[in-house]
User: Fold Putative pterin-4-alpha-carbinolamine dehydratase from Bradyrhizobium retamae.
Amino acid sequence: MAERLSAEARKSALAELPGWSETAGRDAIARTFTFKDFNEAFGFMSRAALVAEKNDHHPEWKNVYKTVEVVLATHDAGGVTKRDIDLAKAMNAIAGQLGVA
Amino acid sequence: MAERLSAEARKSALAELPGWSETAGRDAIARTFTFKDFNEAFGFMSRAALVAEKNDHHPEWKNVYKTVEVVLATHDAGGVTKRDIDLAKAMNAIAGQLGVA
Assistant:
């Protein structure tokens, strides 16, 4: 099982994850992605969903038209683990391909 | 443009929409769908996304693993319109095919 990252390890990982930040009041990380339209936003979600399902590690996310708010945490570990960092990296890579830095 | 439904028309439409209810503090309707797992939840979202895009009328929705919380309102009209009722019906039909009544 993935171990919960220390506050220091979390900060260090976030430094290499543009757009992501710690979530107030929760041991979780979050990013809001803003795309051009719903087509791109849901395209992003579809690709991220395949990654999530493959790794059996799923996001909490909310979509309103062209925005996708994502929160990542590992429930079993009670906080942020390497699995969240990996999914955040994968999401940034997918968004990057859609022109969202 | 779709016209905002009166409170009476909204209640009457909701009576024929199992699982949907009015949203507290907003002129909107909402339903939380609970599926078997992420595969089914995201499958539902994918089918509903195609309907939404085709009709150019999109949901606000949040997915956490097997649950999908949906809120529907028509921003241009400042409330619930026939377009929301139609999307809610389509979502119920898709969920029904996945065994969620």
Remarks:
- The first helix of chain B runs from residue 7 to 14.
